[in-house]
Write a structure and sequence with these properties.
Helices cover about 10% and strands about 50% of the residues. It is mainly β. The longest helix has 23 residues.
């Protein structure tokens, strides 16, 4: 146990030395003013309870099908076909569901995969100024993306992957669509005699969302011509033009280090730097402890925990605003996450169940459950 604790402490120091210079190579604008300028935020809700329990800082450690979401290069490390389905209830009675399928080819040299994510709600009453108690109609929101991934091992140390996405955004009776790509790399090496993984990922780089639909069809009166007698005119049909909204582009650079590992036990520590295009940068730190083939029965268990820095909790209120933005105790818990996984693997067949709880500060928390199978 003493040896394990020493190894864990040394690995944390090594990981900090690796992740620090990586983040230092990124040039960031001194004043990011793009707050609230993107649409399709559901693209950032994650995939799989394992990744969510690790604070989303999972790009370097991706070794299962959820790599399709976090880092497409990671699915090149999968040795057998597999599938994952996960779901959780989000705030305000909304629900997010993600599913993925990955199939290695050419003896594991390359992998193809398919993923789908869906978020939304339905049957909500419509309130207007004329009918503050509801006008008797209802609306819903349905946001979906479908992605196809190709990943390849270029050597025993380096892999890369690319995902092409189609995004559909239906808000009430309006809709919009966009295309985007994710690109990721994964590099394997050793540090202080232990396995080290480093990843670079960019997500949701693509076209803009512009909504259209019947609510934008209006009737307008033709304006009078200056200097002429005003003659009553019939209303003319017109279509309002909605503004384009960009996608939430996300840049990740992360590192994961096996602090301790033998044939049955593993402790991995990780960190990740994140730069979105619509808010300030952040980071995540976490760890995973796993025991495999317990008592040579084929069962395995894993425990996970993380904390991710929430840039929105440090925003200060403008002078003279008349209110305070002091961080409350609930907001301080924002970004904490933890969970566990259990499963069984015998030969090529494997099953797994993973659970995660993640705090959202004053908004409460979320519980995600994932089911996985490999063959």
């Amino acid at each position: 146990m003493t040896r394990m604790i020493r190894s864990f402490g040394g690995a944390l120091a090594a990981l900090a030395l690796v992740a620090g210079p990586l983040a230092g190579q990124v040039s960031l604008p001194s004043d990011n003013t793009a707050y609230g300028t993107t649409a399709g935020e559901f693209l950032l809700l994650g995939a799989g309870a394992r990744g969510l329990a690790l604070g989303g800082g999972y790009a370097a450690l991706t070794t299962d099908v959820s790599a399709l979401y976090y880092n497409p290069a990671g699915v090149a490390q999968i040795s057998r076909p597999g599938a994952v389905v996960s779901t959780y209830g989000y705030i305000a009675d909304t629900r997010y569901t993600w599913a993925g399928l990955a199939v290695p080819m050419s003896g594991g040299a390359r992998t193809v995969g398919l993923q789908i994510g869906s978020f939304g709600f339905s049957d909500q009453p419509v309130y207007t100024l004329e009918n503050p108690d509801g006008d008797g109609t209802k609306y819903g929101v349905s946001q979906t993306f479908v992605g196809f991934t190709y990943a390849q091992n270029f050597s025993d140390r380096f892999s890369a992957g690319l995902t092409a996405k189609f995004i559909s955004d239906e808000l009430g009776k309006t809709s919009a669509s966009a295309f985007a790509v994710d690109f990721g790399t994964n590099f394997h090496a050793t540090a202080v005699g232990r396995a080290l993984r480093v990843a670079f990922v960019i997500q949701n780089l693509g076209t803009e969302l512009r909504h259209s639909g019947s609510p934008l069809d209006v009737s307008v009166e033709r304006p009078p011509v200056p200097g002429q007698v005003e003659v009553p005119q019939e209303e003319q049909a017109a279509v309002l033009k909605a503004k384009e909204w960009g996608l939430p582009v996300l840049f990740r650079v992360g590192a994961a280090l096996d602090a301790y590992a033998n044939q049955q036990a593993r402790v991995t520590v990780l960190s990740e730097f994140v730069q979105p295009n619509n808010t300030d940068p952040g980071f995540a730190v976490g760890a995973e402890f796993a025991l495999s083939d317990l008592g040579k029965t084929g069962f395995f268990v894993a425990g996970r925990g993380s904390w991710s820095y929430q840039a929105d909790n440090t925003l200060s209120s403008p002078q003279g605003a008349g209110f305070s933005s002091d961080v409350s105790s609930k907001e301080k818990a924002d970004g904490l996450a933890g969970g566990f996984g259990v499963g069984y693997r015998r030969g090529n067949l494997g099953f797994g169940v993973d659970y995660c709880y993640r705090s959202l500060g004053v908004l409460g928390g979320t519980n995600m459950l994932s089911f996985s199978v490999s063959w």
